[in-house]
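Researcher: I'd like a structural prediction for the single chain below. Treat it as a standalone chain; there are no partners to consider.
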Amino acid sequence: MSLEHERHQKDYFFKNHPHSPLTAAQKAKFTSLEYYPVDESLNLQIEIEEFPDKPQLQMQTSTGDVRTYLKWGRFQFDVGSDTAELTIYYSPEMDHYFLPFMDATSGNETYSAGRYIDPEYLGNGQFHIDFNLAYSPYCAYNANWSCPIPPAENRLKVRIEAGEKKPSEVWAEGY
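Model: Treating it as a single chain, here is the predicted structure.
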């Protein structure tokens, strides 16, 4: 499925589905989410440095709760002429790899509390990590959702100009 098709499906879900994070008032005004242009240099197949002991991390959420993740491993990647480093987490409860991050666009062009990526484990320490798929958590649209806040180790000083942007349309008032 193409990235463009996935984005159209997400817009349809946000506008029409009963499990959409949007309120009824937001759905009535919603047209589409906004994205950066695709940047193929941020579509990575990368080997991570796996943590041998997989320490637990209690990640704070937007509602004051905590969620437990295992620190799975870290990786470095290039953003233009800069090198950045992020940690991938794993939830045994949900059998899900998780990459929350904040970057220099957070709060200005993207959601202030960061964005997420769902890395795809390819085996043998390899992951597919596509920043073009970076998305805002549901709490960006509705304060009733509880969303993990990226820990300090995943707060970058570089700009990640890929993936979902902060909405600028009237439906997103209060974003």
